Amino acid sequence: MTQCTVSTLPDSSLPPRSYFMPLRRFRDQLHSGGVLRVVTCSHELRSKCGSRSALRRRSTYASGRLRTGPHWSFVFDPAGRLCYYWSMVVSLAFLYNLWVIVYRFAFQEINNETLVVWFCLDYFSDFLYLMDILFHFRTGYLEDGVLQTDAAKLRAHYMNSTTFYIDCLCLLPLDFLYLSIGFNSILRSFRLVKIYRFWAFMDRTERHTNYPNLFRSTSLIHYLLVIFHWNGCLYHIIYKNNGFGSKNWVYHDTETADVVKQYLQSYYWCTLALTTIEVARSPTYKIVLRSRQSSVKSQCGVPAL
């Protein structure tokens, strides 16, 4: 019996096995943090490498003949944490506009003393709105249950959706009218159309929180405070416009008061008007006595008159 020994010669065209460890780490970190890292290669590189496994091995460690590396692109996972945290940031920008726009229009408009502060806050929120549009261009979407990561498809899908036109409506540059009509915060009312982003954030938080009842109670209190805030501002706007021809039903002592006192007075009176329920008239003594007499007679068997 003859013994055959087979010796395997190392392939000089392939790198050592230790070179492939970063590829395994790349595979494990592909969906980390809600960001999908997509590697796209050219058709020429694909034809030279042959199979997909060879493409993955040889695209990273390019030899002298293949010097074309992979093209990296980032796509945000719509169900990832990064999208959730970003929606929270955009929701804070929306809440700033929700509370501040009507307050400035009713009580204290932009003046020379507060010009820098209000402009910095306003245009920082506008910058977040603009970044949200760019964020949508790189956010994936599901098509037939498959997450789409192609840049052209993502751009076409977003620009053909209603969300794109809503986001553009939120950034209408009506602030340029400040140059002709003066400072008027009501021109920024289109920023409130971003409320759909706030509702999506609240819905997702309610579904994923460990304390849903506490979250619902907190959101209900916030909604009530927003309603009272807007009603107080509208109450003061009516007062400034002479109360529709009469000031007998409005509060007094506000012309010499500061802005904080005016706001607190408006907030108090509108809250009082919204929460006051008309009390039912109490019965008179005769009616109560007659009802008692009729009940006693009915118990004794005597018919009531």
TrEMBL record:
The keyword Transmembrane helix applies. Residues 84-277 form the Ion transport domain. Keywords: Membrane, Receptor, Transmembrane, Transmembrane helix. GO terms for cellular component: intracellular cyclic nucleotide activated cation channel complex; plasma membrane. InterPro entries: CNG_cation_channel, Ion_trans_dom. It is found in: Membrane. The chain crosses the membrane at residues 84-103, 115-137, 164-187. One of its GO terms (molecular function) is intracellularly cAMP-activated cation channel activity. The keyword Nucleotide-binding does not apply. It comes from the Eukaryota. It is a multi-pass membrane protein. PANTHER family: CYCLIC NUCLEOTIDE-BINDING DOMAIN-CONTAINING PROTEIN (PTHR45638:SF4), CYCLIC NUCLEOTIDE-GATED CATION CHANNEL SUBUNIT A (PTHR45638). This is Cyclic nucleotide-gated channel rod photoreceptor subunit alpha.
